[in-house]
């Protein structure tokens, strides 16, 4: 048992029996709603909102909105995670951050709907992104806090399945609500606030008021965010593997609506409908691969081979629209990408919890650092995609080629990891 797991067990955080299954279902639901919000807003609501303001410059303007939050969101999760490690309250360490981030983030999401300028949209998206990242970090740390290492495969599977299924359903729902953007933003804002409040009420965290912590020092606090790749190479390999994968994946998914319009040749209405169909296809395949991979990973106590193979499958899926630039090609791409992405996300978190320095003593902070590898590509990929489209005369095939390169490369970053099989 890791030091973190041993400490968690002593304070009654480790869940077993019925409590374990309740927590698994709650994690599935929360990550389902969170990713539904992210994907629905980023892939459908914001692109439609931004395009309505200035159709001719929609790609560049979307990149501006997405990257405005970059400098803030990349640090939000590790800082929130580190502060949650030190949080002392009757509701525990993570719960106050989960509820507070969700409430502020939900209000900010609705605030976007009231904006009629690009600057206004960017400001409220910044508020939402920072708040939701402050919630997401402590929420993800629950896997390291409350599950023994040998059970983290299935826990990661539930989180991964919830995340990928939520992202898919979020795009479907947002596509149907695209005719009324204000309603769309309201639905997602209310959903994230409600599910996070329910999460902390159903899965009560033990009080942390009496937990002994080291005296706070600003120098030591900021120094702790540097994790030496030389001392902790497995942590570094995991970070760069996740970074490369999400950089490739997000570069295509963020512009999926525009791909359907400008690469496949669909109208605005047709593309909003098609993106929903694509999401349904992805949902079916990712749910199957996500849950099955989590169970098999725990059964064989193997993580690396599942992450490696899922990255290869994703790269194969991204190749299909290059060979078949048709709606059928996009449907096949969705099916194969779902298989790979579902398996990847179901095992990736389990692997991450097992490469944390010090056995996870500062799990909130270290998991937050690893989430930079997810957040940074989400913010940076629109810039890269806009540059590629500008360089290659709005040819969206360049996005697929870049995505294949990054996703394929990500699979090989996992192989040098030695502490996890």
TrEMBL record:
Query: Could you say which residues form the signal peptide?
Result: none
- Looking at the record, the residues that make up the Major facilitator superfamily (MFS) profile domain are 24-421
List the coiled-coil residues. none
Give the domain of life.
Answer: Bacteria
Q: Which PROSITE patterns match?
A: MFS
Output the Gene Ontology terms for molecular function. Answer: transmembrane transporter activity
Q: Does the keyword ATP-binding apply?
A: no
Q: Which UniProt keywords apply?
A: Membrane, Transmembrane, Transmembrane helix
Q: Which residues cross the membrane?
A: 21-46, 62-83, 95-112, 118-142, 154-177, 183-202, 235-253, 273-293, 305-324, 330-347, 368-390, 396-415
Under the heading SUPFAM superfamilies, the entry gives: MFS general substrate transporter
Q: Which Gene3D superfamilies match?
A: MFS general substrate transporter like domains
Stored PANTHER family = MAJOR FACILITATOR SUPERFAMILY (MFS) PROFILE DOMAIN-CONTAINING PROTEIN (PTHR23528:SF1), PTHR23528
- The protein here is known as MFS transporter
